[in-house]
Amino acid sequence: MSNIWKTEIIEISGVLQGPAKMPFQMLAKQEYDGHLSIHDDQQAQNLGFQGAPIEGPTHFSQFDPILHSIWGNRWFEVGCISAHFKNVVLEGESVIAFVRRPIPQENITRIWALKNSGELVLEGTASLGPTHPKTELEKLLDSRSTPEKLIILENVTIGDRSSKSDRVKMGFRSHLGKNYPFTLAQKLKKITELCDWYCEATSEKTPWGAPIIPFEMVNPFVRHTPDGLPSAKGPSIGLFADLEVKMINGPLLVDQEYLLDREVVGLGESRRTESMWIKTNIRSIQTEEVIATTLLNTATLKDSYEPYESEAKRIKKN
Questions:
Q1: Taking 70 as the threshold, does the pLDDT of residue 83 lie above it?
Q2: What is the pTM assigned to this prediction?
């Protein structure tokens, strides 16, 4: 185990697991469209949750030391974590990350996380590129049909793209706005698994000559600015159902500027939600090559959109 981690990992019957960790809630004051989000206790309880959920990507950090122990520095350069979120985690609950040791010569394996109670938090795949095998979310997206009529996402179409590329960078003290009311420096004080290569004080010692952005912070990196895409009608409240972060020629570096391009690649519906899948390409400013991608499924709760029933009648939705 590299000394960049202080994580104790054990292996039982070919499954590696890290220690139980209690993730912190850092989005209690998150706002969008002029209202608080699902990460506010009262908003969450109004929609039938016991309390405000921890943001799903927070759990990614518990996998990093395990996957680095398997694949070494290549994990940061060409690793991919692809996760379907199953049950929310509240602040004060413990989570344990599990990774099945990959078969020799294979570059994909199963991952999952459990609460101490045994309840499943997420499941998916971790893989190594740069030519990645088909991931958990790519298979999931391919397996689902596109609904004919949506209400909250009525104005969204598969193939919608951002009109221009955003130029974005993340510094240690960059304020990420109301969507993410904390800085990278603040996150690193509470991150479940801290790596020396994330930190400002030891950054010159990284193989890439600069500190790296943790996997769990890649989604805030791509989402803290307006995406330029048609959006869900509001006011309404959503939560992350699925997220994939894929490195192709990484890692992403702190204080380095990148180009972002976004596209709607899927639409879906369940009994309680309407969902939009957005793929973001993160490209080099200098060469315009794709450095990394994210695939995010945001599920908007039907009960959070007050005119849902009346609009369903208007378009004769069954």
A1: yes
A2: 0.93
